[in-house]
Design a protein that fits this description.
Blueprint lengths: L9 E4 H5 L3 E5 L8 E5 L5 E2 L10 H6 L4 H4 L4 H7 L6 H10 L1 H9 L1 H14 L3 H8 L3 H7 L6 H9 L7 H11 L15 H9 L7 H4 L8 H16 L3 H10 L3 H16 L22 E3 L3 H11 L7 H5 L3 E6 L5 E8 L2 E9 L8 H22 L1
Antiparallel strand pairs: 1-2, 2-3, 3-4, 5-6, 6-7, 7-8
Helix pairs in contact: 5-6, 6-7, 14-15, 14-16
Length: about 375
Protein backbone atom coordinates (compact mmCIF):
# COMPACT_ATOMS: atom_id res chain seq x y z
CA UNK A 1 0.00 0.00 0.00
CA UNK A 2 2.85 2.40 0.80
CA UNK A 3 6.55 2.63 0.35
CA UNK A 4 9.09 5.44 0.32
CA UNK A 5 12.33 5.91 -1.55
CA UNK A 6 15.49 7.31 -0.05
CA UNK A 7 14.09 10.74 -0.93
CA UNK A 8 10.97 10.07 1.18
CA UNK A 9 8.66 10.09 -1.86
CA UNK A 10 5.17 8.95 -0.94
CA UNK A 11 3.50 6.20 -3.00
CA UNK A 12 -0.23 5.75 -2.46
CA UNK A 13 -1.58 2.55 -4.00
CA UNK A 14 -5.15 3.15 -5.19
CA UNK A 15 -5.53 -0.50 -6.10
CA UNK A 16 -5.27 -1.41 -2.41
CA UNK A 17 -7.48 1.51 -1.36
CA UNK A 18 -10.18 1.53 -4.04
CA UNK A 19 -9.59 -1.52 -6.25
CA UNK A 20 -8.43 0.75 -9.08
CA UNK A 21 -5.13 -0.19 -10.82
CA UNK A 22 -3.25 3.05 -10.23
CA UNK A 23 -1.06 4.84 -7.70
CA UNK A 24 -0.15 8.39 -6.74
CA UNK A 25 3.41 9.55 -6.12
CA UNK A 26 4.05 12.66 -4.03
CA UNK A 27 7.54 14.04 -3.67
CA UNK A 28 8.82 15.11 -0.27
CA UNK A 29 9.12 18.50 1.38
CA UNK A 30 12.89 18.37 0.91
CA UNK A 31 12.49 17.78 -2.82
CA UNK A 32 9.71 20.34 -3.23
CA UNK A 33 6.25 18.81 -3.13
CA UNK A 34 4.76 17.71 -6.44
CA UNK A 35 2.66 14.74 -7.51
CA UNK A 36 1.63 12.60 -10.46
CA UNK A 37 -0.94 9.89 -11.05
CA UNK A 38 0.15 6.58 -12.56
CA UNK A 39 -2.46 4.39 -14.22
CA UNK A 40 -1.61 0.89 -15.43
CA UNK A 41 -0.34 0.78 -19.04
CA UNK A 42 -0.70 4.57 -19.44
CA UNK A 43 1.88 7.38 -19.27
CA UNK A 44 2.03 9.22 -15.90
CA UNK A 45 -0.50 12.02 -15.50
CA UNK A 46 1.35 15.05 -14.07
CA UNK A 47 -0.11 17.51 -11.60
CA UNK A 48 -2.37 20.15 -13.16
CA UNK A 49 -1.58 23.61 -11.82
CA UNK A 50 -3.85 24.78 -8.98
CA UNK A 51 -5.73 21.48 -8.82
CA UNK A 52 -5.53 19.36 -5.70
CA UNK A 53 -4.05 15.88 -5.55
CA UNK A 54 -6.32 12.84 -5.83
CA UNK A 55 -6.29 12.52 -2.02
CA UNK A 56 -6.51 15.27 0.58
CA UNK A 57 -3.75 16.34 2.92
CA UNK A 58 -6.13 15.60 5.79
CA UNK A 59 -6.27 11.97 4.64
CA UNK A 60 -2.49 11.72 4.55
CA UNK A 61 -2.17 13.34 7.99
CA UNK A 62 -4.57 10.80 9.50
CA UNK A 63 -2.73 7.71 8.26
CA UNK A 64 -0.07 6.23 10.53
CA UNK A 65 1.78 4.66 7.61
CA UNK A 66 2.18 8.09 5.94
CA UNK A 67 3.69 9.81 8.97
CA UNK A 68 7.33 9.61 7.82
CA UNK A 69 6.42 11.68 4.75
CA UNK A 70 4.00 13.99 6.60
CA UNK A 71 6.30 14.73 9.55
CA UNK A 72 9.02 15.97 7.19
CA UNK A 73 6.86 19.09 6.67
CA UNK A 74 7.80 21.76 9.26
CA UNK A 75 5.48 21.63 12.29
CA UNK A 76 4.41 25.29 12.08
CA UNK A 77 3.34 24.80 8.46
CA UNK A 78 1.47 21.57 9.22
CA UNK A 79 -0.46 23.39 11.95
CA UNK A 80 -1.47 26.31 9.72
CA UNK A 81 -2.43 24.09 6.79
CA UNK A 82 -5.23 22.51 8.85
CA UNK A 83 -7.28 25.68 8.34
CA UNK A 84 -7.27 25.23 4.54
CA UNK A 85 -8.51 21.66 3.87
CA UNK A 86 -9.61 22.39 0.29
CA UNK A 87 -6.21 23.86 -0.63
CA UNK A 88 -3.73 21.72 1.31
CA UNK A 89 -1.59 20.29 -1.50
CA UNK A 90 -1.81 23.43 -3.64
CA UNK A 91 -0.46 25.48 -0.75
CA UNK A 92 2.24 22.89 -0.06
CA UNK A 93 3.33 22.93 -3.70
CA UNK A 94 3.99 26.68 -3.55
CA UNK A 95 5.48 27.04 -0.08
CA UNK A 96 7.83 24.06 -0.53
CA UNK A 97 9.16 25.36 -3.86
CA UNK A 98 9.22 29.15 -3.53
CA UNK A 99 10.82 30.88 -0.56
CA UNK A 100 8.59 33.95 -1.10
CA UNK A 101 5.48 31.78 -0.86
CA UNK A 102 6.75 30.21 2.36
CA UNK A 103 7.46 33.65 3.82
CA UNK A 104 3.99 34.91 2.87
CA UNK A 105 2.33 31.80 4.29
CA UNK A 106 4.18 32.22 7.59
CA UNK A 107 3.35 35.93 7.89
CA UNK A 108 -0.08 36.15 6.22
CA UNK A 109 -1.48 32.70 5.35
CA UNK A 110 -4.97 34.02 4.61
CA UNK A 111 -3.63 36.28 1.87
CA UNK A 112 -1.80 33.43 0.11
CA UNK A 113 -4.92 31.26 0.36
CA UNK A 114 -7.06 34.13 -0.99
CA UNK A 115 -4.69 34.63 -3.94
CA UNK A 116 -4.68 30.93 -4.83
CA UNK A 117 -8.48 30.72 -4.60
CA UNK A 118 -8.82 33.63 -7.03
CA UNK A 119 -6.10 32.26 -9.31
CA UNK A 120 -7.88 28.90 -9.42
CA UNK A 121 -11.20 30.48 -10.45
CA UNK A 122 -9.47 32.58 -13.13
CA UNK A 123 -7.13 29.76 -14.32
CA UNK A 124 -4.01 31.86 -13.92
CA UNK A 125 -0.57 30.61 -14.92
CA UNK A 126 2.08 29.70 -12.38
CA UNK A 127 4.33 32.55 -13.53
CA UNK A 128 1.59 35.10 -12.90
CA UNK A 129 0.90 33.76 -9.41
CA UNK A 130 4.57 33.65 -8.42
CA UNK A 131 5.22 37.17 -9.70
CA UNK A 132 2.36 38.41 -7.51
CA UNK A 133 3.64 36.48 -4.48
CA UNK A 134 7.02 38.19 -4.94
CA UNK A 135 5.40 41.62 -5.07
CA UNK A 136 3.52 43.89 -2.66
CA UNK A 137 0.54 42.58 -0.74
CA UNK A 138 -1.70 45.38 -1.98
CA UNK A 139 -0.76 44.39 -5.55
CA UNK A 140 -2.05 40.88 -4.83
CA UNK A 141 -5.45 42.25 -3.83
CA UNK A 142 -5.52 44.58 -6.82
CA UNK A 143 -4.95 41.62 -9.15
CA UNK A 144 -7.79 39.80 -7.35
CA UNK A 145 -10.09 42.75 -8.08
CA UNK A 146 -10.33 43.64 -4.40
CA UNK A 147 -9.47 46.95 -2.70
CA UNK A 148 -5.68 47.33 -2.91
CA UNK A 149 -5.36 49.06 0.45
CA UNK A 150 -3.53 48.31 3.71
CA UNK A 151 -6.96 48.15 5.39
CA UNK A 152 -8.02 45.27 3.12
CA UNK A 153 -4.75 43.42 3.78
CA UNK A 154 -5.30 43.91 7.51
CA UNK A 155 -8.91 42.70 7.32
CA UNK A 156 -7.79 39.40 5.83
CA UNK A 157 -5.27 38.98 8.64
CA UNK A 158 -8.00 39.50 11.26
CA UNK A 159 -10.08 36.57 9.98
CA UNK A 160 -9.69 33.66 12.38
CA UNK A 161 -12.12 31.08 11.00
CA UNK A 162 -11.85 27.45 12.11
CA UNK A 163 -11.44 26.51 8.45
CA UNK A 164 -11.42 28.33 5.11
CA UNK A 165 -13.23 27.07 2.00
CA UNK A 166 -14.45 28.36 -1.36
CA UNK A 167 -17.82 29.37 0.12
CA UNK A 168 -16.04 31.57 2.66
CA UNK A 169 -13.80 32.96 -0.07
CA UNK A 170 -16.88 34.21 -1.91
CA UNK A 171 -18.25 35.73 1.30
CA UNK A 172 -14.95 37.55 1.90
CA UNK A 173 -15.01 38.86 -1.66
CA UNK A 174 -18.52 40.23 -1.09
CA UNK A 175 -17.40 41.90 2.13
CA UNK A 176 -14.44 43.62 0.49
CA UNK A 177 -16.89 45.23 -1.94
CA UNK A 178 -18.78 46.93 0.89
CA UNK A 179 -18.27 50.65 1.34
CA UNK A 180 -17.44 50.22 5.02
CA UNK A 181 -15.23 47.11 4.73
CA UNK A 182 -12.40 48.88 6.62
CA UNK A 183 -14.60 49.09 9.73
CA UNK A 184 -14.27 45.32 10.13
CA UNK A 185 -10.77 46.07 11.39
CA UNK A 186 -12.23 47.30 14.68
CA UNK A 187 -12.61 43.58 15.39
CA UNK A 188 -9.19 41.97 15.76
CA UNK A 189 -10.03 38.27 15.90
CA UNK A 190 -13.04 37.50 13.74
CA UNK A 191 -14.53 34.01 13.91
CA UNK A 192 -16.87 33.13 11.05
CA UNK A 193 -20.07 33.45 13.08
CA UNK A 194 -19.18 37.01 14.15
CA UNK A 195 -18.07 37.85 10.61
CA UNK A 196 -21.48 36.85 9.23
CA UNK A 197 -23.22 38.74 12.00
CA UNK A 198 -21.38 41.96 11.09
CA UNK A 199 -22.24 41.49 7.42
CA UNK A 200 -25.89 41.06 8.33
CA UNK A 201 -25.89 44.00 10.74
CA UNK A 202 -23.22 46.50 9.59
CA UNK A 203 -24.55 49.01 12.13
CA UNK A 204 -22.71 46.89 14.73
CA UNK A 205 -19.29 47.50 13.17
CA UNK A 206 -17.06 49.03 15.83
CA UNK A 207 -19.98 49.42 18.24
CA UNK A 208 -19.48 49.15 21.99
CA UNK A 209 -22.22 46.53 22.02
CA UNK A 210 -20.22 44.29 19.69
CA UNK A 211 -16.80 44.95 21.16
CA UNK A 212 -18.08 44.28 24.70
CA UNK A 213 -19.94 41.09 23.79
CA UNK A 214 -18.76 37.52 23.61
CA UNK A 215 -19.67 35.20 20.73
CA UNK A 216 -21.98 33.04 22.83
CA UNK A 217 -24.20 36.06 23.62
CA UNK A 218 -25.21 36.42 19.95
CA UNK A 219 -27.73 33.61 19.80
CA UNK A 220 -30.80 33.41 17.57
CA UNK A 221 -32.89 35.39 20.07
CA UNK A 222 -30.45 38.32 20.12
CA UNK A 223 -30.22 38.40 16.32
CA UNK A 224 -34.00 38.36 16.15
CA UNK A 225 -34.06 41.36 18.52
CA UNK A 226 -31.70 43.23 16.20
CA UNK A 227 -33.89 42.44 13.19
CA UNK A 228 -36.98 43.70 15.03
CA UNK A 229 -35.24 46.94 16.04
CA UNK A 230 -34.14 47.69 12.48
CA UNK A 231 -37.60 46.86 11.11
CA UNK A 232 -39.22 49.17 13.63
CA UNK A 233 -36.76 51.92 12.73
CA UNK A 234 -37.90 51.66 9.10
CA UNK A 235 -41.57 51.52 10.08
CA UNK A 236 -41.19 54.59 12.30
CA UNK A 237 -39.23 56.39 9.57
CA UNK A 238 -36.39 56.85 12.02
CA UNK A 239 -33.63 54.65 10.58
CA UNK A 240 -30.74 57.01 11.26
CA UNK A 241 -31.87 57.72 14.82
CA UNK A 242 -32.38 54.00 15.46
CA UNK A 243 -28.85 53.25 14.25
CA UNK A 244 -27.44 55.83 16.65
CA UNK A 245 -29.43 54.34 19.52
CA UNK A 246 -28.06 50.89 18.69
CA UNK A 247 -24.51 52.25 18.75
CA UNK A 248 -25.12 53.69 22.22
CA UNK A 249 -26.05 50.26 23.59
CA UNK A 250 -23.34 48.76 25.78
CA UNK A 251 -24.71 45.26 26.29
CA UNK A 252 -27.54 42.85 25.53
CA UNK A 253 -29.73 44.37 28.26
CA UNK A 254 -29.48 47.83 26.63
CA UNK A 255 -30.46 46.29 23.29
CA UNK A 256 -33.52 44.60 24.76
CA UNK A 257 -34.52 47.85 26.50
CA UNK A 258 -34.29 49.71 23.17
CA UNK A 259 -36.40 46.99 21.55
CA UNK A 260 -39.15 47.34 24.17
CA UNK A 261 -39.20 51.14 23.94
CA UNK A 262 -39.55 51.03 20.17
CA UNK A 263 -42.46 48.59 20.53
CA UNK A 264 -44.21 51.09 22.80
CA UNK A 265 -43.60 53.91 20.33
CA UNK A 266 -44.80 51.84 17.38
CA UNK A 267 -47.95 50.60 19.11
CA UNK A 268 -48.92 54.04 20.42
CA UNK A 269 -49.37 55.32 16.87
CA UNK A 270 -52.94 55.86 15.73
CA UNK A 271 -54.36 53.03 13.64
CA UNK A 272 -57.92 54.20 12.99
CA UNK A 273 -57.26 55.32 9.40
CA UNK A 274 -55.24 52.28 8.36
CA UNK A 275 -56.68 50.19 5.51
CA UNK A 276 -58.07 46.69 5.89
CA UNK A 277 -57.64 43.80 3.43
CA UNK A 278 -54.79 45.54 1.57
CA UNK A 279 -52.24 42.71 1.92
CA UNK A 280 -51.55 40.09 -0.75
CA UNK A 281 -53.79 37.02 -0.57
CA UNK A 282 -52.89 34.71 2.34
CA UNK A 283 -50.50 31.97 1.18
CA UNK A 284 -52.32 29.35 3.27
CA UNK A 285 -56.01 28.98 4.06
CA UNK A 286 -57.31 29.58 7.55
CA UNK A 287 -58.50 26.91 9.94
CA UNK A 288 -60.88 26.98 12.86
CA UNK A 289 -58.15 28.28 15.18
CA UNK A 290 -55.55 29.85 12.83
CA UNK A 291 -56.51 33.02 10.92
CA UNK A 292 -54.54 35.17 8.46
CA UNK A 293 -53.97 38.87 9.20
CA UNK A 294 -55.00 40.46 5.91
CA UNK A 295 -54.52 44.21 6.31
CA UNK A 296 -52.60 47.07 7.91
CA UNK A 297 -55.28 47.81 10.50
CA UNK A 298 -55.52 44.22 11.74
CA UNK A 299 -51.73 43.88 11.84
CA UNK A 300 -51.35 47.07 13.88
CA UNK A 301 -54.20 46.03 16.18
CA UNK A 302 -52.53 42.64 16.69
CA UNK A 303 -49.34 44.41 17.77
CA UNK A 304 -51.22 46.69 20.16
CA UNK A 305 -53.26 43.88 21.67
CA UNK A 306 -50.36 41.48 22.21
CA UNK A 307 -47.78 44.24 22.82
CA UNK A 308 -45.13 43.16 20.33
CA UNK A 309 -43.66 44.45 17.06
CA UNK A 310 -45.46 42.39 14.39
CA UNK A 311 -46.54 45.66 12.75
CA UNK A 312 -42.93 46.34 11.73
CA UNK A 313 -43.10 43.41 9.28
CA UNK A 314 -45.66 45.12 7.04
CA UNK A 315 -43.12 46.09 4.31
CA UNK A 316 -42.05 42.44 3.96
CA UNK A 317 -45.69 41.32 3.87
CA UNK A 318 -46.46 43.78 1.08
CA UNK A 319 -43.52 42.39 -0.93
CA UNK A 320 -44.84 38.83 -0.57
CA UNK A 321 -41.85 37.72 1.51
CA UNK A 322 -43.66 37.35 4.82
CA UNK A 323 -47.10 36.70 6.27
CA UNK A 324 -48.64 36.94 9.71
CA UNK A 325 -51.34 34.75 11.25
CA UNK A 326 -53.00 34.63 14.62
CA UNK A 327 -53.75 31.45 16.53
CA UNK A 328 -56.56 31.24 19.09
CA UNK A 329 -56.06 27.73 20.46
CA UNK A 330 -54.28 26.13 22.36
CA UNK A 331 -52.98 29.64 23.12
CA UNK A 332 -53.55 33.13 21.73
CA UNK A 333 -50.42 34.02 19.81
CA UNK A 334 -49.09 35.66 16.66
CA UNK A 335 -47.32 33.68 13.94
CA UNK A 336 -44.76 35.16 11.54
CA UNK A 337 -43.79 33.12 8.46
CA UNK A 338 -40.98 33.66 5.94
CA UNK A 339 -42.11 32.87 2.38
CA UNK A 340 -39.71 31.53 -0.28
CA UNK A 341 -41.67 31.16 -3.53
CA UNK A 342 -42.28 27.41 -3.99
CA UNK A 343 -39.75 26.38 -1.34
CA UNK A 344 -41.06 25.36 2.05
CA UNK A 345 -42.11 28.29 4.26
CA UNK A 346 -40.17 28.87 7.47
CA UNK A 347 -41.66 29.84 10.82
CA UNK A 348 -39.87 33.01 11.89
CA UNK A 349 -41.65 33.65 15.18
CA UNK A 350 -44.52 32.55 17.39
CA UNK A 351 -45.21 35.03 20.17
CA UNK A 352 -47.64 35.32 23.06
CA UNK A 353 -48.37 38.67 24.67
CA UNK A 354 -45.19 40.71 25.36
CA UNK A 355 -43.10 38.36 23.20
CA UNK A 356 -43.42 35.45 25.60
CA UNK A 357 -42.78 31.97 24.24
CA UNK A 358 -45.57 29.51 23.46
CA UNK A 359 -46.00 26.03 24.90
CA UNK A 360 -44.71 22.92 23.12
CA UNK A 361 -48.32 21.99 22.34
CA UNK A 362 -48.91 25.28 20.52
CA UNK A 363 -45.58 25.02 18.72
CA UNK A 364 -46.42 21.51 17.50
CA UNK A 365 -49.94 22.54 16.43
CA UNK A 366 -48.55 25.35 14.26
CA UNK A 367 -45.76 23.25 12.75
CA UNK A 368 -48.20 20.50 11.77
CA UNK A 369 -50.66 23.03 10.30
CA UNK A 370 -47.97 24.75 8.21
CA UNK A 371 -46.48 21.50 6.91
CA UNK A 372 -49.93 20.24 5.89
CA UNK A 373 -50.94 23.58 4.34
CA UNK A 374 -47.74 23.77 2.28
CA UNK A 375 -48.16 20.18 1.06
CA UNK A 376 -51.73 20.88 -0.01
CA UNK A 377 -50.58 23.99 -1.88
CA UNK A 378 -47.85 22.06 -3.73
CA UNK A 379 -50.34 19.37 -4.77
CA UNK A 380 -52.65 22.00 -6.26
CA UNK A 381 -49.78 23.56 -8.22
CA UNK A 382 -48.86 20.19 -9.71
Amino acid sequence: MLNTTQHNTLHVDFNALFGFPSYLTISSWEQGIDWSLHVEQEPPEPREYLKEAAISLEYVAAKLEYQQWYQSIPANIRKKLKKYPEMGFTLLYHISRYIEAEELFNSHPNLLWFLLCYARTEKWTEDKVINLIKGKRTHILNACKSPHTPAAVKLLSHLNFDTFCIKKFWKIQETLKLTDYAKFNYHKNLDYKTFLLLIRFPVLLGSRLMLNSEEREWNFSTQSTMTDILNMGVNLRAESETHQRIKRCKNKYDLETLHDRLIQTLNHQSIKDLPSHNFPAPPFLETEHIKPICGSYDLAFEGQKLRHCIRSYEPQIMKGKYYAYQIHYPERATIGIHLHNQDAPVIDQIKLICNRSVSQETQKTIEEWLASAHLDKMRKIK
